[in-house]
Design goal:
The protein is α+β, with helices and mostly antiparallel strands and 69 residues long. Helices cover 26% and strands 20% of the residues. It has a single domain, classed as Alpha-Beta Plaits. It has a two-stranded antiparallel sheet with strand order 1-4. It has a two-stranded antiparallel sheet with strand order 2-3.
């Protein structure tokens, strides 16, 4: 599955980074999300769950999962 981030919607709250720092970081200049890995291996249940949780907790709705079953 693929993670997409809408930088125009991102408010830099950092909830994604707190949820899964292996997938997300924040831009040092404006705090908006930086995707460290745009693809998540469907076979890695823990990482998939973390990606879903990050999408769920994003206060601005800037994250989405493409190809999530």
């Amino acid at each position: 599955m693929r993670i997409e981030a809408d930088l125009d919607r991102c408010v830099g709250a950092g909830q994604c980074v707190l949820t899964e720092p292996a997938l997300f970081d924040q831009n040092d200049e404006d705090g908006r999300v930086v995707l460290l890995a745009a693809e998540v291996d469907d076979g890695d249940a823990g990482l998939v769950a973390a990606a879903r949780e990050a999408v769920h907790v994003c206060p601005s709705g800037a994250l989405s999962l493409i190809g999530d079953r």
